[in-house]
Amino acid sequence: MNSKQLIRQINNPQSIGKNEIAKIEQLLVEHPYFQSGQLLMAKGLLNTNSIRYNRQLKKAAAYSSDREKLFKLIILNFTNNADSDEVLKQNPRKDRVLEIGKPLFFDENESHSFSEWLVLSKVKKIVRNKNPENNNLIDDFIENPIIITRPKKELFFKSISAAKDSLVENNELVTPTLAKVYLEQGHYEKAISAYEKLCLKYPEKNSFFANQIKLINKLKEK
């Protein structure tokens, strides 16, 4: 991937597809500490609904010096319809599986869910290698800002302790994505609590959330 192609992807991350992913991946083999590359890789895998997305999102968070930028990037021009009524109509058996391992989709109002995921995933930042032979060629790109509009709610990343304390106490912060975050990280009781709150918050989807609770209880018994 040449510099012009890379700048094009930085300016238009929503256009990253399979071809671009392959090129970015090769770039990261040579420059694993390239923060913008790690972020763009995550966005590309999200764009293509790849099963590799969750792992890359964690990796991008580890390499990123600005996780708010990462959050803005993954919500850019993205609409989460994963639990929409239309999807359930197309696949009526969807509510009978937990779909663990599927990509986690966050929208602009779910900065809390994203910060909870960071806390529960225990993602630690990786210090970038300062070897000039490896990094001088890409320093300009790392500093190049990705221009993205801010989410409507400025709730982003308070302290870790504050995130732990809040968990699912605030009904307004409970979303299907947050429930999936708890489920993916093996916090089954928190996932059940979240789904119980979602049953009250979205009564029209009561059946779906109730079935998810049943499936989690069965999973706990194994």
Please give a structural write-up.
The protein has 222 residues and is mainly α. It has one domain (3-221). It is built from 13 helices and no strands. It is elongated and about 50 Å long.
List keywords for this structure.
222 residues; elongated; mainly alpha; 57% helix; 13 helices
Determine the N-to-C terminus distance: 47 Å
Helix and strand content put the structural class at mainly alpha
Low-confidence stretches: 132-143, 145-168
The radius of gyration over CA amounts to 19 Å
Approximate shape: elongated
Order of helices and strands: HHHHHHHHHHHHH
Oligomer: single chain
Please count the beta strands (DSSP E, at least 2 residues each): 0
Number of helices: 13
Number of domains: 1
Strand residues, percent: under 5%
Whole-number average pLDDT? 79
The largest sheet is: none
| Residues in helix, % | 55-70%
Q: Topology of this structure?
A:
Layout: H1 3-11, H2 18-30, H3 35-47, H4 53-63, H5 67-75, H6 85-90, H7 111-121, H8 132-135, H9 139-143, H10 160-166, H11 176-184, H12 188-201, H13 206-221
Helix pairs in contact: 2-3, 3-4, 7-11, 11-12, 12-13
Question: What would you say about this model in short?
Answer:
The protein is mainly alpha-helical.
